Amino acid sequence: MGRLSWATGLLGVGFALALLGATPPPSWRAPLRHLKAWWFNQQGQQAFRRGDFRRALQAFQKAHRVIGDDGVIRYNEGTALLKMRRFQEAEQALTQALRQLPADRRQEQTDAYYNLGNLYFARQQWDKAAKAYIAALQRTPNDLDAKINLELVLRHRQKSQRTRQPQQRPSPPPPLPPPSSLERNPLKRQLQKGLTAPWHGERDW
């Protein structure tokens, strides 16, 4: 699956939500549990494409029970949980996926960090969101979606710092609505050559 955008009605600021493991089945010589996990993963991806995220999650969880800890399966679980707005569980699954994905799986790591950034964006945790997007850009520097989302995070963070009153502890905010196309389209053009925010630059990643 490719990277999806706000136009498709997803939760985050251009969620990646590209499921992993859409590959041919393992060799017949592979242990039976590998074949079963692959089959459950494929079932989950098909349900995800249909928009049946509950059934997709159930299939990914079955794959997890069969194969054990696996970065690809945990990433897919986290992605489905993210679509269901189960943020705490999604954060745990994506964080575990990042620990389990091999160092040479840079694109998969990029997508996991990108989705974590979107999760923190929805919760208005600007510092964590910025760190996640920067981690994605460290692995894939030309990722325009991550650049746009990082720019938006930095702008929101600067705005919140200006408006926050001393000694005030804000209550947990509700998830943000999607940014309008009027906000994303100019940013896309501006960021073709890099970040434009004066308080941050590409040198930081």
What share of the residues lie within helices?
55-70%
* Rg calculated over all Cα atoms: 18 Å
Mean of all residue-level pLDDT scores: 78
Count of beta strands: 0
What about the largest sheet? none
How would you describe this protein?
With 205 residues, the chain is mainly α. 59% of the residues lie in helices and 0% in strands. The protein has helices at residues 32-49, 53-67, 71-83, 87-100, 106-122, 126-139, 144-163, 181-190. It is globular. The model is unreliable at 1-13 and 198-205 (pLDDT under 50).
Brief summary:
It contains eight helices and no strands. It has helices spanning 32-49, 53-67, 71-83, 87-100, 106-122, 126-139, 144-163, 181-190.
State the main characteristics.
205 residues, mainly alpha, 8 helices, globular, disordered N terminus
Produce the secondary structure layout:
Blueprint: H1 32-49, H2 53-67, H3 71-83, H4 87-100, H5 106-122, H6 126-139, H7 144-163, H8 181-190
